[in-house]
Amino acid sequence: MPAQEQTAAGSGAVAPEDVTAAIREAIVRGEFAPNQRLVEADLSQQFGASRSGVRTALFELANEGLVERVQHRGARVRAVTLEEAIEISEVRMVVEGLCAAKAAERVTDEEIAELRSIGDAMRAAVADGHVLKYSELNQLLHRRIIEIGGQATAAGVVERLRAQNVRHQFRLALVPGRPNVSLAEHLAIIDEVCAHAPDAAERAARRHLASVIQALKAI
Amino acid sequence: MPAQEQTAAGSGAVAPEDVTAAIREAIVRGEFAPNQRLVEADLSQQFGASRSGVRTALFELANEGLVERVQHRGARVRAVTLEEAIEISEVRMVVEGLCAAKAAERVTDEEIAELRSIGDAMRAAVADGHVLKYSELNQLLHRRIIEIGGQATAAGVVERLRAQNVRHQFRLALVPGRPNVSLAEHLAIIDEVCAHAPDAAERAARRHLASVIQALKAI
DNA sequence: GGTGGTTAAATTGTCGACATCTTCTTCGAC
DNA sequence: GTCGAAGAAGATGTCGACAATTTAACCACC
User: Global pTM?
Assistant: First the structure.
């Protein structure tokens, strides 16, 4: 056994196929700093994969917008500026608005119960000051509404954009008092979706993302 | 010189780098039929590139949504169903709405003149029955408004979605009477953008795409 | 002491060969 | 005659080595 099991990403030796997932996770979890160079040879050692696999993974991640590639100059972790984060959130605003509207049209009784349950859990998390838990529920809610909307295209677009913004989303969650504002907006979205009110649901979703954008600008 | 210059895509022997562009063009131009298998070895001969280059290109195009890849089963031209085309247009509807609003905020006098000029040319093309010319102007208008909006993120999203839909867009352009409907909507968008009216511009853009969706459903 | 050019190291890009998987064909049995 | 299995052919996935390019260091020269 070689003498370097000190990988930056934690789990040494990764299967030859989900190298992409491993590197993606390392980036979004912040184990690779923004603008950090991603040298193919180094990564192949760290993850125990061949250089080809790493190379393919870097192309994939470049298409997802997580890494930047320059011809003959290699790849580095993409640093999303505040300006770009705002742009991304603006696109998310309109697309998630669409998804919320579609969800309001198609939501079933069973899904209504699920959404209500998520809403209750969010309320509880905020009341108890569990920021991390709230953040998880936040992601879950957004994802479920998109899934309920049933728009595969929109889902793909949002998922890609969300991954690019994790860092900024995280910073936002730590702003004091932010969860309270956010909670009310989330509950409003849930209410309108469950009321089968597409237009109102779209407005509520857009209002929420608009609020996120305002908070980003305030930093 | 080898004796096979009979490429399906036209230009034999392509530089080792823009194989992606060549294959993409062949797909959107319809020279590769939907669901047609794209065998790496065949393509590398047709385009005079190595298999690695073709392989990289296919990955790229898969990320753009133009080809489908299945593990160990190869790539084929993605056949976008009517249902998917509608979904895609719905996302475009909201994102281009956003771009139109942004464009209305930022448009300069010079750009206003340009948009007006495009509008006049569209009117003339419809009057003269130049369907192809009108289709080109159509694309130009959409692209310019997005560029004027200055949202790089939104631009990327729309560009990707547009490429997936070319086939259906093309079919739509051939519907009798369709250009007339479309023309009025385009002129409305131009008017509102030039009037620096973000909300009205967004509504106009959404109305146009909604009309496109209706036309798609009518097929 | 600073600047320009040249060399060397490091890293990415490309290519060909081999391994693995899928699928079509073929042969045999029921 | 049909179903099933085994084998062969085709295509993709993976790997290692070589070529091309960028970047850094170094030395000569002004």
Answer: 0.90
Mean pLDDT, 10 residues at a time, over chain B (219 residues)?
38 64 92 95 92 93 94 95 97 98 98 98 96 94 97 96 94 91 97 98 98 94
* Nucleic strand C near CB of residue A73 (< 7 Å): yes
Query: Does residue B34 reach within 7 angstroms of strand C, measured from its CB?
Result: no
How many Å apart are A109 CA and D25 C1'? 70
Q: Between chains, do B152 and A84 touch, taking CB under 8 Å as contact?
A: yes
A41 CB inside 7 Å of strand C: yes
- Cβ atoms of residues A97 and A206 within 8 Å: yes
Q: Which CATH number fits domain B3-77: 1.20.1290.10, 1.10.10.10, 1.10.760.10, 1.25.40.10?
A: 1.10.10.10
Strands A37-38 and A67-70: unpaired
The answer to whether the CB of B58 falls within 8 A of the CB of B26 is no
- Which residue in B101, B98, B117 sits closest to B109, CA to CA? B117
Give strand letter and number of the nucleotide nearest A72 (CA to C1'). Answer: C12
- Is domain A82-218 annotated with CATH 1.10.940.10? no
**Token pair of B139, please?**
């694309």
Q: Which chain A residue's Cα is nearest to B90?
A: A98
Helical spans, DSSP H, in A29-130: 40-47, 51-64, 82-106, 109-128
Domain locations along chain B? 3-77, 82-218
Task: Give the nucleotide with minimal C1' distance to the Cα of A55.
Answer: C12
3-state secondary structure of B13: coil
Across the interface, whether the CB atoms of B91 and A59 are under 8 A apart is answered: no
Tell me if B97 sits within 8 A of B202, measured CB to CB.
Answer: yes
